[in-house]
Amino acid sequence: MLAAPPGLGRTALLCAAAEAHRDRGPVLYATAAPAERAVPCSGLGALLGVGPAGASPGAPPPGVTPDALAGRLREFADGGPLLVCVDDAHVWDAASQAALAFAARGPGAGSRISFLLSAADGTAFAGLPTLHLAPLDEGAASALLDRLAAGTEGLDPVVRAEILREAGGNPRLLGGLTGCLTPDQLAGRTPLPWPLPGGEAVLAAHAERLDDLPDRTRSLLLLAAAAQEHEPEGAGADALLLLRAGTRVGLPRAFLDRALFDGTGAGGLLQRAGSRVHFAHRLAARAVLHHAPWARRRAAHELLATLLAETGDRGAVDDSRARDVPGFPEARAARTTALPLAALVQRACAASGPDAALATGLEAVAVAPFPHAARAAALARAALLSTGPALRAARFAAAAEQARLAGDPPLARALLARTGPRTADAAPADSAATPGVAVTDPAPGLAPYVHGMLALRSGPVADAHEVLLAAAALLVPHDHRRALDALLGAAEAAWAAGDALGYLNAMNRLARTPADEGLEHYRAGMSAVLEDRTAEGHARLRRCLAPAGDPGDSAALLRAGVAALVLGDIAAACRAGARALAAVRTAGPDALLPQALEHLAYAELRAGRHAGARAHALEGLHAARRTGQPNSSAHLHAVLALAASVEGPAEVCDAHGDAAMAEAGPHGLAQAVTLATWARARADLAAGRPGEAAARLAPLIQAGPGRGHFATRTLAVPCWVEAAVLAGRLPEESRALHAAVDEFAFWAARAADPGAPAQLARCRALLAPADEADARYSEALARHEEAGGDFERARTHLLYGQWLRRRRRTREARRPLRDALIGFQRCSARAWAERAAGELRAAGEPVAATVRDTAGEPLAALTPQQQRIARCVAEGATNREVALRLSLSPRTVDHHLRNVFAALSIRSRTELARLLSS
Fold it and tell me: What does CATH list as the number for 685-852?
């Protein structure tokens, strides 16, 4: 049995199976006819009246009963292999279904008859082996779309994303949508229609089930489908609202309770999750609306609007805001803006055509405190009600911005695809323009601004930089706030790309745009630091550490964290990061959550709090994936690689480093590449592979085309010096090493990083002649005492102890090596602790009682591969994510994970995480 909703390929699979079987034997193939469902045994007639390759075994005579089907099939097979294929068996008459189910369950001893049935669900054929078909995954759907669009000039990326999103992995719908769009629409030259055409056949197939349902069930399904229209996509409908609406139209309370709260009584199409009601299949709600007569749909929307207006919506809205919108009559504004946002959306759904006043009312009300997702839905409805193309495009662009802020980039791109080319030669019909006067675009620069902000988080950052600069130029005369955001975004894109000149260019343009005092101090301070006016820059940046104004301004708090890191005030950076995270979690937007977690995690890394950095970066990684921000994922993978280069194991560091490189390379994220490379080199050092570490870091730090990020490569200089010296590269690379140390000294003098002087002294000790090294190491350790930080101090102790032991000062070497071991253990740097223990052992001191005994670890009984998988799963990674990290297949990960559970006598991921944290 193949079970799946319409459009997922049941018929295609049956046809392929039938064609493959014809070389082995005959095939009986029948497709159910819904029109004959009321005729008893009509299905049997359709099946037995058609033979293989057009031959007919004869229509069943009137005396053939359903229970005789198995016998007739055995007679027809005549001992040979026979394949019986029935498509859409769920629409057969009841007698034929019973006969088919009986025959399929037991064709008889020695029979060579096989059955392959397809149905919308397996309800009528319970007990048969059933394969439930799922929608195509993203890769398969994208490959199918490429084949479908092969004959066109080119498929615009935004149009591609919208088609894939609308199809939801349904291959039949994917073909219908693609076939109904013009070449210009597919290429992105003209805007896409809303809704996309081409899904009518799939929706009609979904709606076939509705005809057999009772009237009250159809009424409830229509209300449920209509109630989802004012909700964010995927949120379902409010069960209590549906209860009130059903009661208002006279549906029995007992029926409503069963359908909405017990999960029965709605034809199996509704499911409850808490206080929300969802359709069992994504397309079912659209099919219900598509199938219902317009008068009934309109009545449902108007009823819901009335109910929502009676009780109000979450969040109060100032009615006076609507009066400030040009072209909106005051009388109409006072009436419509008194309704909550959801009620206005329902009113819009009930509109039979464009309605300028209602559209303007929706736009006026779609503001805070309503969530960004609700505002996006309202603005999209306002666009559909607009009569002028320019205003319609502007409202679609505004809806796209709200969808982006809500953390839904696919929806944002879908809305942008409706903006189309911008025109300024005609006034929109629903504007307040003077007749005969040309009207410019009501929102110039808004669409490219949203495009650029989306690219900043999910595309090539060089493209984002240029688009945001162009958008800022368009926005400056009309939208001051967004112009500032566009320039800040362009600067951020240049920073991520390692383009210092591009960053300064964006900041210099920002200087020509009036800004508040805090932002101006940040701009001037960052520009001064990059232009080597360090004292001036630090003075400006110190004035950003405590942002004035709104204490919940997450953007200002994130800038404060960046300023603190540049100043070297790591404690202030951690405080600003924690406050920014709290502000985002309290007031949003959701799209900013990955950045808030990334900034805090990086500050914690600099503070030496690796466990906290790892926890926040893992949460940020999940948030970045949920909100469709692969660029943020790359940065967070780099942070996780840095944390793993301290804590271990090395495999986790490698996996996160590889993931960061894979996502950062195509999008030009030089900062993420630099940090990931540094992390892997540090893990090589911990494992005693200085040659590999030096080879990784040399191109990053030395001059040349492969040089690392301008602001972060200097942080890796101490690692490179250590690796090159330990690998014996000092003679041939002496000049480059000394030049790098001089650059690090210049940076340390400007950055005011408390740990930089100690690391500088350590670098000079590594490069110093034997008669000077001792004093240099002593200086470095003294500076570590002033700066703090267990990990870097332990590294200096380790290098000093190694240096002493290699000069046969074994007795003196034991103390710094012992201090190194204890320091590494204190900050959970396991691989580094093992390296220190080996050096201490070589110095003649037993360490069996000092190092941690691994025999008693929870994972000691597992193989190394199982240990790696268990640690990743305990961190919260899915099987697919573990496979990506460790370069395995998901099936292999699943196999190993089952063995892990068996070996540890546990049954869940939660138990595994608890076991490893104890």
Answer: 1.25.40
